[in-house]
Amino acid sequence: MRTISLVSALALSIACLAVPATAQQAPANPSAAAGVHTDLPRVAHPSHYAISITPDATNLTFTGTSSVDLEVTEASPVLTLHALDLKIASATLTPAGGAAMPVTVTMDAASQTARFAAAQPLAPGKYRLDTTYSGVINTQANGLFALDYPDKVTGKDVRGLFTQFEAPDARRFAPMFDEPIYKATFDLSAVVPSNRMAISNMPTIKEEDLGKGLKRVTFGTSPKMSSYLLFFALGDFERMAKEAAPGVQAGIVAPRGSGEQPRFALDELAPLIPYYSEYFGQPYPLPKLDNVAAPGQSQFFSAMENWGAILTFERILLNDPAITSASARQNIVTTQAHEVAHQWFGNLVTMAWWEDLWLNEGFASWMETKATAHFHPDWFPLLGRVEGREAAMGLDGFKTTHPIVQEIKTVDETNQAFDAITYQKGEAVISMLESFAGETVWRDGLRAYMRDHKFANTRSRDLWQAVEKAGAPGLTSVATDFTTKPGIPLVKVTGLTCRKGVSTVMLEQGEFSIDRKDQVAGQPQQWKVPLLVSAGGEATRTILDGGKGTVTVNGCGPVVINAGQLGYYRSLYTPKMLASLKTAMPSLQPVDQMGLIADNLALSTSGYQPYAPALDLLAAVPGNANPVVASSAFGRYVGAWRTLEKDPATQKRLAAKVAATWKPRLMTLGFDPKANESLPDADLRSTLISGFGTMGDPDVVAEARRRFAMLASNPKALDGPQKTTWLNIVARNATKADWDAIRQMAAASNSAVERQFLYTLLGRPADPALAAAARDLALTDVPGKTTSAAMIVAAAGLHPDATYDFAVANRAKIEGLVDAQSRVTFIASLANASNDPAMLAKLEAFKATVPAEASRPVDRVIGGLSERAKARPLFVKGLTDWLNARKK
Predict the structure, then answer these.
(1) Residues with catalytic annotation?
(2) How far is CA 516 from the centre of its chain?
(3) CB under 8 Å, gap of 24 or more: what pairs does 367-374 form?
(4) Which of 76-80, 312-316, 822-826 has the lowest mean pLDDT?
(5) Where do the DSSP E strands lie in 226-285?
(6) Is the pLDDT of residue 439 over 80?
(7) Contact 787/297 with Cβ under 8 angstroms?
(8) Reduced to 3 states, what is the DSSP secondary structure of residue 302?
(9) pTM value?
(10) Alpha-carbon distance 323 to 26, whole Å?
(11) Cα–Cα distance measured from residue 320 to residue 752, given in angstroms and rounded to the nearest whole number
(12) pLDDT averaged over the chain?
């Protein structure tokens, strides 16, 4: 699953600145899964489900029947399965070779279970549980849900149905053993309108005409898999497909009328299947892999890795030349790379329980970068790992953090596990471990892991043992440190000498913290930290263990103690070393340029050093830098500019300095796309235009207004990859007439993606009255059930206090606009940009209204705001002093 982050971090906000079933390996008996958490009594496990549903899309309900083949492993008075929002009309239990017997059903909403009791206790043996039931079709992405969208040909609203079951929502579709360790095969069929296309994990094997405009669609039997990977979709779709590997077809399923929009995604999807098959040493085990475009959005996730039928929201899958930007095209590639990686890491081999969710998400994040670098090295995707590391550290530096492998006991805790620690820290630690083991040994270990555990469940230690056995002694101890301990190592240089071309670097390991600096300084955690140290020559690998160490490395050039930036730690240099790095900055590798700036800004923000050295490094990035580095550096300047909102004079000075370096780069790129330009250059253009627009650059704002005015005579005047960029600038500076024009454009659009974007723009204006109008509009049915939440998020960008108050005052309505998984996180996150001290008390009051196990998102926002209140004036002073010093 690809998630959407709802919580900004202090460090960033301030510094931002088909194999037949008989060939499948059977998993271990879940009833004997010692030490693995469960919400269910471990007295039974399923082997096969046969589910049939009949959806009523108009009335948002469905009926279903389910037959579960299961084995009772120890005598029990009842059989307990998960069930949520289901009304079970009847149930029978049939012993193998026996007669069906009625059972009494007791529903428990609190535990989300159904208990089935027969007249006599159940003896060990094999049974079949048959149920008939009904359920609800939701309007947010939980269980079976509906999305309404404009038909691309007629513009009339049509409705599609989709499912989203991760983490605990397959239980909304049928009574199930809804935990990842309970793997089983699935047969799914559905009674649907004859003129609609139905999609599931496996291809359709039969369609039967039932008359009266209905048909029964039956899908093939799935591989052995966890319940959360089951998928069903129904709608007015079309499918574009091609062969990806012998016996495997790749397809993009999209709303009718999409035409060639799926082509780019399909061409990127198909090669991933043989690439991953070769890398993991296991062929893709299904006959097809579809990616289904859902014309809506979620505040919790952007794509989901259902086996053989990925779900991706249309705005992140289809390439519409009228609106798809360069960054959106890149996102199509990286999102697919992530979800296809899951077909092996997560689907073929699945974590035993949600505490090891990172075995899915961290590895898919790491593999998406590796795959993108393989197919598109000219996009410099490996540089993105620096920003991913920073996103993780932005959470990991607070006391509210958690280890990668975390204790999870409840549904709410599971939902909260989809965060930057699981994804980005997971990717960063894996990258570090791959570097420690070596690429070949690491890959050989992964192949052994896949071979030994396919169609089964694992825990983290299974992976470490496989990689160690492949030839990486000591990896388990390093991996255990970084996955079971929360927080961030701090590697400090305590001395440096260079004689006869050899540098000797003395190091000490502490712990970096944003909100507990003094506390961790006295009693820092200890990690075994893999280092890669360079001094302008050949780099040296070593392990910093025991808190102190000395490294010798050839060369007397500027020392980088995290060369290549694959280590998950902060690097604290001496002032003299930072001065040397500043001079050397233009000649350093792009990844080290990005990593050094990010590290030092975070260290300065948290009080480990003054601001000047960090800002000097930022200023040393040349205007002709690698486009990804340039985008990152420029974005940090824009973040710094925003913090000066109460000091317009200093803001103006900073804007002038930024323009002196980066305006010439924009003028070289030009305002319009060029033929055959690289994607990073196209993306940099958008970043520069957007940033200068935010800072009120008169040339850029005037150009945005000129282009917007053209729409009056030509509605397609802005079509192209820059459309979203220019319209964002207009929206920020919108007048009432501009706002009304954007609203009219949204209502008239036949594109679900464009309509969502335009309605969201209505929340962006700096004018508080227009932002308030957008919030009010969001509570109506006009924007669409899944667009309203995005409008409210947009309004919170410049108006966090008013938007947060609005959300709390309309809490019941707001919670109906977001997925169940993200309700607490959504409301709390609206306060992220607040500078009002009174917000802390408001958040504490809100926290008191949520279950304790669901309060972590609120604590994170409270912690972030508290630290920012302390850090902001220090940052403003540091930045002002630095600007003053550079005038002299």
Answers:
(1) 339
(2) 27
(3) 367/276, 367/337, 367/338, 367/341, 368/334, 368/335, 368/337, 368/338, 368/341, 369/334, 369/337, 369/427, 371/272, 371/275, 371/276, 371/337, 371/340, 371/341, 372/333, 372/334, 372/337, 374/275
(4) 822-826
(5) 232-235, 237-245, 248-255
(6) yes
(7) yes
(8) strand
(9) 0.94
(10) 47
(11) 11
(12) 93
